[in-house]
Amino acid sequence: MKTRIEMTFETLRQAGKKALIPYIMAGDPCPDVTVDLMHALVEHGADIIEVGLPFSDPMADGPIIAHAAERALAVGVSTRDALNMIAKFRQTNQTTPVLVMGYLNPVEIIGYDHFANLCADAGVDAILMVDLPPNEADGYAKSLTERTDHPMNQIFLLAPTTKSDRRTKVIENC
User: Phi and psi of 32, rounded to 5°?
Assistant: First the structure.
């Protein structure tokens, strides 16, 4: 079963187009804006939406995203709240892929399988955990991609300086 992300990239590839994937932090500037902002992004051409999960120590993010996470956390937005926002978006948009970007600590607290279930229930299409290296993600990635009810893509980051053997491992796990 293909994911919404795979179908979107296939459609774009056939049309000779690239994907527009804007990023927003769930709950920033305030929780009530997130779902409306997601719909506005789609109306203005977003092919896929990346939603950040607020985290207190965003070590891989720059100051803009770190401050967005701080603002979201300051008004009480949690990982579960962010997933609820995506579920609300899904009530009226079943086609635009949504991926979540976050950090492993909250996922470990929730539990890998439970987090995957929450994401599936919310309608998430892919997960990017910035601090989860591909060589440590085998079991977790399988819990996403081998789902029969709602398969999701696992996304890993590559740096321009990534060596070819590591790049191959990352690509195999995506």
Answer: -70, -15
